[in-house]
Amino acid sequence: MIRILGIDPGSRVTGFGIIDSDGINAVHVAHGTLRLKGKELPPRLGQIFAEISEVIESYRPEVMAVEQVFVSKNPSSALKLGHARGAAICAGVSRGLAVAEYTPRSIKKAVVGTGSAEKEQVQHMVKLILKLAENPQEDAADALAVALSHANTNTTLGRLAAGRTR
Fold it and tell me: Can you give the pTM of this predicted structure?
């Protein structure tokens, strides 16, 4: 079993999700959202770093998977999202975690089966896959989807590598 921390970064709300995966089955460990306070960006980035650090200390994941920045219509929003990603990644790296990055499209494809899935579809599939009683909040569901995407990708890469060594 490997413990994976998934991160859905945001400058106002950052989602996190933790799963254990043996490469075939995934088990829900925890999920939640960081509601970032204040108007100024630097203190919010500090809060992301501190709170993700606490999550890492509490749950001891072995790897972190983070959603990549997508370029939206608003370059300012994309920059803020990039800063939020950086704060989360720094928290992971400073605690010795390897960090994997996935595009929003590849995450949706891994969890739902199509890269153009809607948020509600991601929430529903995360609920089903992890056998949760109810749909997780959007940002937490996205973070769990990032972790599931890493579990799927890691398993596939492991199988490919094993096939090459035979």
Answer: 0.89
Structural domain count of the chain:
1
Residue 124: CATH number of its domain: 3.30.420.10
Is 22 designated active site?
A: no
Could you confirm whether 8 is annotated as catalytic? yes
Q: Catalytic residue at 118?
A: no
Paired with 5 in beta bridges are 18, 64
CB 69 within 8 A of CB 82: yes
pLDDT tens-digit series, residues 58-102: 999 999 999 987 666 777 888 888 899 999 999 999 999 999 999
Could you give the CA distance from residue 144 to residue 16 in angstroms, rounded to a whole number? Answer: 7
Domain that holds residue 140: 2-164
The CA distance from 145 to 10, in Å, is 15
